[in-house]
Write a structure and sequence with these properties.
With about 280 residues, this protein is α/β, with parallel strands linked by helices. It contains 11 helices and 6 strands. It folds into 2 domains: about 70 residues, lambda repressor-like DNA-binding domains (434 Repressor (Amino-terminal Domain)); about 190 residues, Endonuclease, Chain A (2-Layer Sandwich).
């Protein structure tokens, strides 16, 4: 029951010019109005909440998405009585780049998720260091602000592991993804340790597809499938510059069939953890 997330390593261009930009600009204007209303300069306001004047300018001009702690501190300093802090709900979704927003919404409704990835560790399983290193090698290069935004969005999606009731999560990773030293060997070691930790959770199963497999149902590319609370199943597919939600029953059925075969061809969850331990010992 699962479909394509096109690596979950998004190949989109850095872009705030989407439907979230209006929200960010409106929030920035409101903060500026509150600040000027109490007679504080940007420098004074920044010092009071622990941010630089340049960061305050970027938030107020809609160039940067304010973090939750920024809004909480601003609310306190400007004595907004919760009105600024409440904006956290408005900006929460805007932290997701446009092309991953549909996926994030689906994951919020998911009771079961399965994914096959073939060129790097799946985003939901990535450590912050690994995710940052992965985005850092993107070309064209991301700006520091966009890089922070993408990493933050990826880590926020990992709340799916601690949701109640528990979501059943299964992943099939290609052997090569365990060997490629994204960020260097130290980052890879911590990533492998993280995989072992996640793979031992009761509601998570991680499997490894050995490179020497002659029969491989995943040669068509990565895929991701999600079973939603209403009992329906959907897929999510992503290529270099496009992404789409797969909802047609026939297409979803093909992905379910394909993912089931991929899982049967990979090492068992227990055997996979042993395999990852071996790779870690050799890294």
């Amino acid at each position: 029951m699962y479909a394509n997330d096109g690596t979950d390593e998004p190949d989109w261009e850095p872009d705030l010019e989407d439907d979230s930009s209006a929200v960010i600009e409106a929030v920035g204007r409101q903060i500026k109005l509150w600040r000027t209303g109490v007679g504080m300069s940007r420098a004074e306001f920044g010092a009071a909440i622990g941010y630089g004047e340049a960061q305050v300018y970027k938030v107020e001009s809609g160039q940067r998405i304010p973090k939750p702690e920024f809004l909480d501190r601003a609310d306190d300093v400007l004595r907004a009585e919760g009105k600024i802090a409440a904006m956290k709900e408005d900006v929460a979704e805007a932290r997701y780049p446009k092309k991953v927003r549909d996926l994030a919404r689906l994951e919020n409704e998911t009771v079961e998720l399965g994914a096959y990835g073939n060129h790097n560790i799946h985003g939901l399983l990535q450590t912050e260091e690994y995710a940052r290193a992965l985005f850092d090698v993107r070309r064209p290069a991301l700006s520091p602000d966009d890089l922070d935004r993408y990493v933050s969005a990826r880590l926020a999606r990992q709340s799916i592991f601690s949701r109640s009731p528990l979501v059943t999560l299964t992943f099939v990773l290609e052997e090569v993804t365990l060997l490629r030293p994204i960020g260097g060997k130290a980052v890879l070691r911590r990533q492998l340790e993280h995989l072992l930790e996640m793979g031992r959770l009761r509601h998570v199963e991680i499997q490894v597809m050995p490179t020497d497999r002659e029969d491989h149902a995943g040669m068509g590319g990565q895929l991701q499938l999600l079973k939603l609370r209403d009992g329906s199943a959907v897929g999510y597919s992503e290529a270099q510059l496009t992404s789409r939600v797969v909802v047609a029953p026939k297409e979803v059925h093909v992905l379910e069939l394909r993912y089931g075969i991929i899982r049967s061809q990979a090492l068992s969850p227990r055997g996979s953890l042993s395999f990852i331990e071996k790779v870690l010992g050799e890294t």
